[in-house]
Specification:
Layout lengths: L2 E11 L6 E9 L4 E8 L5 H12 L6 E4 L2 H14 L3 E3 L4 H11 L12 E2 L8 E8 L3 H6 L5 E3 L16 E8 L4 H11 L1 E10 L3 E8 L3 E9 L1 H16 L3 E7 L9 E6 L3
Parallel strand pairs: 1-4, 4-5, 6-12, 8-14, 9-13
Antiparallel strand pairs: 1-2, 2-3, 7-9, 10-11, 11-12, 13-14
Length: 269
């Protein structure tokens, strides 16, 4: 598929008029620039965007445009509708973020994260645990199983990330019991991006934060237990060795027979 990653945001000020300038930047997933243009704030609308995207694409429009910035999403979605191009909200726009960092610095991709919200009590399962699987097996183990919700994007396959087969890929397993499918559907709806361990007191307590959507955050689990805290530290260390790659598995129980949902995830730097 011909997929573009795009951003549209205010970037600088015109020296002549003093007006704020907005920049449209789009690239493909390999990091090749597809479009770069700027306009005064008064022209920053979906019509201008649609025109620039069409001119840049020529006769071959992209099949999809991926957007990571909430402030860009509505205008680019409206422009995409004018051109018949679906626009997807996703944090996984690594090529675009690299270009923006090179042009404008680290702050160019910084987003204001929402405060973590509590997970609804009606969704939580019966028990959970940390786990790991060798990188060479994680896709093969789950790809052909009848899992209702299965998110194994090729861009996150260990092979695609250059992760050696023996490398342990850490994960979280939630046994949801009767709520298992309800929890999996909710996770699919919020679009998980990562599960990060945040220590409260190192070696004693902390919690797991679900990063979801573009800027949403949810408190999955909190704990005050030294053994669990040590396991959480090991989880973080394994994520460093796996280039941030990890997984989240939801199942009814630990029988190994039935699964409700599986997500390959990756923490951002």
């Amino acid at each position: 598929m011909n997929i573009w990653q795009a951003d549209f945001y205010k970037r600088s000020q015109s020296e002549a008029s003093g007006e704020i300038l907005w920049e449209l930047l789009a690239c493909d997933r390999a990091g090749n620039l597809c479009c770069i243009a700027s306009c005064p704030q008064k022209q920053a609308n979906s019509d201008w965007l649609a025109s620039q995207l069409k001119n840049a694409a020529g006769d071959i429009l992209p099949d999809e445009i991926q957007v990571f910035r909430p402030q860009s999403l509505s205008l680019l979605t409206a422009a995409g509708e004018k051109l018949g191009i679906p626009v997807t909200a996703t944090r996984r726009t690594e090529a675009l973020k690299r270009i923006l960092q090179e042009r404008w610095g680290q702050n160019a991709i910084a987003l204001d994260r929402l405060p973590p919200q509590a997970l609804p009590d009606t969704l939580w399962g019966e028990q959970w645990r940390f786990a790991s699987l060798p990188a060479g097996e994680i896709v093969e183990v789950f790809r052909d199983r009848p899992i209702p919700i299965l998110e194994l994007p090729e861009s996150l396959h260990p092979l695609s990330l250059g992760i050696a087969a023996p490398t342990p890929i850490p994960g979280i397993i939630i046994d949801g019991g009767r709520r298992s499918m309800q929890l999996a559907r909710w996770l699919q709806e919020v679009n998980p991006a990562a599960v990060n361990y945040i220590p409260t007191t190192i070696g004693e307590s902390g919690g797991l934060i679900l990063e979801a959507g573009l800027v949403e955050r949810w408190v999955l689990i909190t704990f005050e237990d030294e053994e669990v805290a040590r396991s959480a530290e090991a989880y973080n260390q394994r994520k460093q060795g796996s280039k941030g790659l990890h997984f989240l598995l939801v199942r009814p129980d630990d029988s190994g027979v039935t699964y409700s949902g599986l997500w390959l995830l990756r923490s951002e730097d």
